[in-house]
Design brief:
alpha+beta, four-stranded mixed sheet, about 30% helix, 11 helices
């Protein structure tokens, strides 16, 4: 059924949010391993709390490369330094780093390596379901609520990093509520920004810093009434980051994906090498859904795949165009299977995922980003458009 008049909300969190600090550290470790061995297996979780970082997980290299605990620990410090944490309660130089990373289980290895286990072809690293989504409501083919939420925090982070507003500290959250007419956003109902700040900053000063940023992000004339523009609704936000709240890898999966506008299979991305389908298949389904929308086959598209551990090909591929499709969903599904090998190895090869490209994705969303020369965000490319457009002819 087509969407009717409604409102919808998405949130984002900054690079300094404790959970995002954890995600960035975990992905820095992934990149450290992949930089030495593109086939390395990595599953690393991070806990952050007051002046302490704890690493835990399983790793394996296949080419004899060695990544020491000292290197992992230094990667964690480098991440925290780059974010800008130099507070009494969380400081890149003074924090303790505990490292409990160890070798990967041989029983897991036999299911995900070619020629081992019950199935000889390289299989998925776990069972599960993954979703990809795209919508034509923004140039990024992403939900507008999430795009604006990310952009507000990225622009505020730039003002903090370049010294324009040293009153700002790293931890922050944003929330955008839009009014929709059908599937099209037509205005803003409310904006919420909570931003950590130095003790000397007043609430009015913070409002005056944040207001022009929000106005710059939103379409002209969309800024809400002042009583719907919420800045630090509790009044003060001095104690924040891992000192104010413990952080864990994988707790911001909706921020990482589609802001609640699409289903989520439940698996986090950060800290996992691309042999894990939680990550690679989620990237692949976004790639497929984005290409469907970019090709004009639908205004919205949601794609689900499912896997069994040790089995290479997905057990299912489901396409939903929400009644906006130009051709049948079964036709789209068959064509997508023809165009892309959705086995773990096929996805890695098609999207060139075996490279140290993941750190940039660990803050401000994995989707709706611009592909880089280094290979990050390859899943945002639209290389299938021409072949998909042929379906509508």
């Amino acid at each position: 059924m087509p969407l009717q008049h409604h409102e919808f909300t998405s949130e984002s969190v900054s690079e300094g949010h404790p959970d995002k600090v954890s995600d960035q550290i975990s992905d820095a470790v992934v990149d450290l391993f992949l930089g030495k061995d593109p086939t390395a297996k990595v599953a690393v979780e991070t806990l952050t709390t007051t002046n302490r970082v704890v690493l835990a997980g399983e790793v394996r290299t296949n080419n004899g490369a060695v990544v020491t605990k000292d290197e992992m620990n230094q990667a964690a410090r480098d991440v925290v330094k780059a974010i800008g944490y130099e507070q009494d309660g969380f400081h890149w130089q003074n924090m303790a780093v505990e490292n409990h990373v160890h070798g990967q289980s041989a029983e897991i290895a036999q299911g995900v390596e070619a020629g081992q286990g019950l199935h000889q072809e390289e299989g998925a690293g776990d069972q599960g379901i993954m979703f990809g989504y795209a919508t034509d409501e923004t140039p990024e083919l992403m939900p507008a609520t999430l795009v604006y939420s990310h952009q507000i925090l990225r622009k505020l982070a730039e003002l903090r990093h370049n010294g324009t507003h040293p009153e700002l500290e790293p931890d922050a959250k944003s929330q955008v509520t839009l009014q929709y007419d059908g599937s099209r956003p037509v205005g803003v109902n409310a904006i919420v920004v909570s931003h950590q700040h130095k003790d000397s900053a007043t609430l009015e000063e913070l409002r005056e810093i944040i207001r022009p940023v929000v106005k710059d992000v939103l379409p002209e004339g969309w800024f809400p009434d002042e009583d719907k523009f919420y800045v630090n609704p509790t009044g003060r936000f001095v104690i924040g980051g891992p000192d104010g709240d413990a952080g864990l890898t994988g707790r911001k999966i909706i921020v990482d994906t589609y802001g609640g506008a699409a289903p989520h299979g439940g698996g986090a991305f950060s800290g996992k090498d691309p042999s894990k389908v939680d990550r690679s298949a989620a990237y692949a389904t976004r790639y497929l859904a984005k290409n469907v929308v970019a090709a004009g086959l639908a205004k919205r598209c949601n794609i689900q795949v499912s896997y069994a551990i040790g089995v290479a090909q997905p057990l299912s591929l489901y396409v939903d165009t929400f009644g906006t499709g130009e051709v049948g969903e079964d036709t789209i599904a068959r064509k997508l299977r023809e165009l892309v090998d959705l086995s773990p190895r096929g996805i890695r090869n098609h999207l060139k995922l075996e490279a140290p490209i993941y750190s940039p994705s660990a803050s401000y969303g994995h989707f709706g980003r611009t592909p880089t020369d280094a290979g990050a965000f390859s899943w945002e490319k639209t290389g299938l458009v021409n072949e998909l457009q042929a379906l509508a002819k």
